[in-house]
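in:
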């Protein structure tokens, strides 16, 4: 769930078998959660991260919770978050096009 909101792997700066990271996770270390995602989604992520497995939601509870989001105020939160993300992406797209053109020009000159 966290990867869907961040677009990256959690703790990407660490090696996969980093023992220090394993200790940090056991002590409660978690990646930062994007504050712009819907509150209901953020709370569910945090419940899934509970260090006590008995306090984590079961798969059927996850399914039912996500299904109910479509019917309530969470749906509006997701729509607002989507609009915000689209505005951010469209603001970045001009920069990406410019970078793409500059890259094409420099590769043309190298030939």
């Amino acid at each position: 769930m966290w990867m869907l909101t961040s677009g990256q792997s959690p703790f990407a700066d660490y090696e996969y078998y980093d023992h220090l990271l394993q200790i940090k996770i056991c002590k409660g270390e978690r990646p930062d959660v994007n504050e712009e995602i819907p509150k209901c989604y953020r709370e569910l992520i945090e419940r899934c991260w509970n260090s006590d497995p008995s306090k984590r939601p079961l798969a059927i509870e996850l399914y039912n919770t996500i299904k109910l989001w479509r019917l309530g105020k969470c749906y509006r939160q997701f729509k607002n978050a989507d609009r915000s993300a689209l505005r951010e992406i469209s603001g970045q797209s001009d920069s990406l096009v410019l970078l793409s053109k500059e890259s094409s020009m420099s590769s043309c000159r190298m030939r």
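note: The radius of gyration is 20 Å.
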